[in-house]
Amino acid sequence: MKAAHIPVLCDEVIAALAPAPGERHVDATFGAGGYTRAILERGAEVAAFDRDPLAVEGGHALVQQSGGRLTLIEAPFSAMESELRARDLAPVDGVTMDIGVSSMQLDQAERGFSYTLDGPLDMRMSRSGMTAEEWLNGADEAEIADVIHRYAEEPRARRVARAIVFARPLSKTTELTNVVRKALKYREHDKKDPAPRVFQAIRIHLNRELDELVEGLRAAERVLKPGGRLAVVTFHSLEDRLVKRFLRERSGSEPAGSRHRPVSAPAQAPSFAPPPRAVRPGEDEISRNGRSRSATLRVAWRTAAEAWPSKGEGVA
Question: What is the pTM for the complete model shown?
Answer without folding.
Answer: 0.91
